[in-house]
Amino acid sequence: MYGKITGYHVDNNKVRIDYGRISATVEAITPAIINIFLPLSGSKKPSHAIEGEKGVPVDLAVKQEADELVITTDQLAIRVGADFKVDFHTRAGQVICRDYRGKREAFVRRGKTSLIGEEGHQVVAHIGGNRVEVLKELIGDEYFYGLGETTGHLNKRGYQYQMWNTDDPSPHTESHEKLYKSIPFLLTLRKKLAYGLFFDNSYHSFFNLGKENGGYFYYGAKDGNLNYYFIYGPSVQQVLAGYTYLTGTTPLPQLWALGYHQSRHSYDSWQRVQEVATAFREKKIPCDVLYLDIEYMDGYRIFTWDRERFADFSAGVAKLQAMGFKVVTIIDPGVKKEKGYPVYDEGLKNDYYIKDKDGIPYVNRVWPGEVVYPDFSNAKVREWWGQKHRLLTEQGVAGIWNDMNEPASFDGPIPDDVTFNNDGSPATHAEMHNVYGHLMAKATYNGLKTLTGKRPFVITRACYAGTQKYSTVWTGDNCSHWEHLRMAVPMLLNLGLSGISFCGTDVGGFSFDCNGELLARWVQLGAFFPLFRNHSNMYTRDQEPWAFGAEVEEICRQYINLRYTFLPYLYDLMWEGEKTGLPLMRPLFLSYQDDEETYELNDQFMVGDCLLVAPVLQQGQRCRAVYLPAGEWVDYWSGERHRGPGYVLKKTPLSVCPIYVKAGSILPNFPVRNYVGEREIAELILDLYPGEGSYTHYQDDGETFNYRAGEYNLYRFTQRLTGDKLVLDLEKTAAGYERSYQSFLLKVRGIAATAVNADGHEVAFAKEDGGIMFRIPGTTKRVEIRME
Ligand code: GLC
């Protein structure tokens, strides 16, 4: 295709490789991250996903071997050959990933598509044909993950997915190749070795993972450049660190954002919102956030509210605030096309909308009727948009929900040739479609940041790679179907493996009617989602925790309480994630990569390193098998100990979601509160599972960015068993935040003790649930528990 290498030139980290008519580049961003670039449609444009300079000095050696160029870093040997075929090897010579050189050929398909089409069957006979395409050999042992928000199972091998943000409310099934988000990042695990491929091309793209043919997989796009990053592990954790080094990590949210959220399309008056708020407090079901969906607006005009149903807006918000609630309002991108509507007029006057091929603001239809679309690819528009939120923040609104930002268009697809400003280098809709929601979330985040000074809470439906820097996400319009409860696990795990660690599905399901058993199981699972939000569609039956009778209400209360108990643990994980890129909700192989049994577990996951959750995902299921990897595990409910690796059977009456804790864990807990901030937490509970282990707990003000200037505390807890003693060391390793815990309440599981000693003083203890419980001052350095 491009022929043989005709020459090359090395410039620091970058090697230009000439092929007669075209020159490619191979650039070492770090010793483990390599950018592969071929200018198929012009020179490299700034990435929407990667911000700032990421290159570091790399020791690069380049030599020619026969027809190949061999480029080496400390970690990799990259062999580049004729036709710009690129292979990645370890320094020891092991092949990690190589381009496919065989014949391209689809699996045999027989018969007539016209005939089956007659009956309405969908015909899928897609083969390649993309302008940009990379074929990689299927060596045979690949498991594929990532790719953002996808239906189906954890492992993507054998399937095809498309990246083209799509608002498709039909019940999502395995045959949906595209949904609301485009995250062209593929994580491959080959037995013990992992690598990532980030295809930073925003056009409509395809990932075919052995569906076309068992000999290769490919990714390609309809247009743009061949531009991808190879990210070496060998651990999955290192691949994720590399990917989030490029595209950014999820910043630590405000603590309340990890609480329980209640939403509805739509609570349509202050009276109804107030009823819901009061019910939460009366029923003592914790809840931090209430949402106002589109009905709060005046005729679906963004940045307005209905003056009757939501009269005296700031007073309505203030009333909820006084009860401990945060209010999040929806803001869609479509601006109603209506002369005299200030937002529309302002945008028109300033030339802020995307335009059709004749240079006129492009019009389509969404909730308000005819709308125009702000051009978020223009820095001025992002700034304008961000500042528009002042109207809402001044009323006390605490967060913003960005929806319909694929962007949705009820009157058919937006034509490819609609134009965007793209910060001065004009681009078409074909190029900008997939980054529209990303740029909207970025504008919203930056606006909220300057307006409030606090860590912004933004939730978005559409995304591109890197959106994690600006927003949490939910997975759009799912259904109250058991199938969608089941799918939530691999979907969120793969989002986490695509950098989007702060994510959730609509708990209870959005479309169709939920039922009590389904809600109970979804709340049990949702208690471990990074984003825990119950939401449902207009005209479906009520779906609040109390809507299905006393038994289900009690189960919801129990698991929402559990969420609030685990809050400090979840917050610690988000803090860790900002540094490492690791998600909160993790597939088991993230921690147990050497154990192949974990590679295709679709129905259980880890929360951090300590908790293993095995939810019930089927109607009527009263018992389930749980895989426990190597080590000792404690049943959270019964205290029973199990040694992994192996399967255990757990009885699962409706009130039980199986949870296992790794022995040696020290879990920080908070007492249950109706909402974050209801009472100050002066005492941290330590739920301790005897064994060897240590844990770092993080504490800050829970809302500002002061932690970035060092205003936080770190506590390191280390436990070990020596003879008949369990010894716990407590250390404060950072002390930048003025408030500290005055005491610790220890709950030591599964031991019989004869004495407890803290820094040389005897401590009284109580026996509780097959273990012991006692309180020590916050300044304690060492605890020794003598066991029977
Ligand atoms: C879309 C959203 C849904 C929202 C509705 C009305 O369907 O996905 O969450 O409730 O629009 O705004």
Task: Report the major sheet.
Answer: 9 strands, parallel
Question: What is the number of helices?
Answer: 13
Q: What is the CATH T-level topology of the largest domain?
A: TIM Barrel
Structural class comes to: alpha+beta
Question: What CATH architecture of the largest domain do you see?
Answer: Alpha-Beta Barrel
Q: How many strands?
A: 50
- List of distinct ligands in this structure: alpha-D-glucopyranose
Return Rg in Å. 27 Å
How many domains, as an integer? 4
CATH class of the largest domain: Alpha Beta
Task: Sum up the overall morphology in one term.
Answer: globular
Strand order of the largest sheet: 31-30-28-25-21-20-19-33-32
Q: How many angstroms does the end-to-end distance come to?
A: 76 Å
Percent of residues in helices: 10-25%
Strand content: 25-35%
Mean pLDDT: 97
Residue stretches low in confidence (pLDDT < 50, at least 5 long) are: none
Q: Can you offer a commentary on this structure?
A:
- This protein is an alpha+beta fold and 788 residues long.
- The protein folds into 4 domains: 1-247, glycosyl hydrolase (family 31) (Immunoglobulin-like), CATH 2.60.40; 259-333 and 379-409 and 420-574, TIM Barrel (Alpha-Beta Barrel); 585-662, Golgi alpha-mannosidase II (Immunoglobulin-like, Sandwich); 680-787, Sandwich (Immunoglobulin-like), CATH 2.60.40.1180.
- It has 13 helices and 50 strands.
- The strands form 10 sheets. It has a 9-stranded parallel beta sheet.
- The longest helix is centred in the middle third of the chain and has 17 residues, at 436-452.
- The chain is globular, with a radius of gyration of 27 Å.
- The termini are far apart.
- The mean pLDDT is 97.
- Alpha-D-glucopyranose binds next to loops.
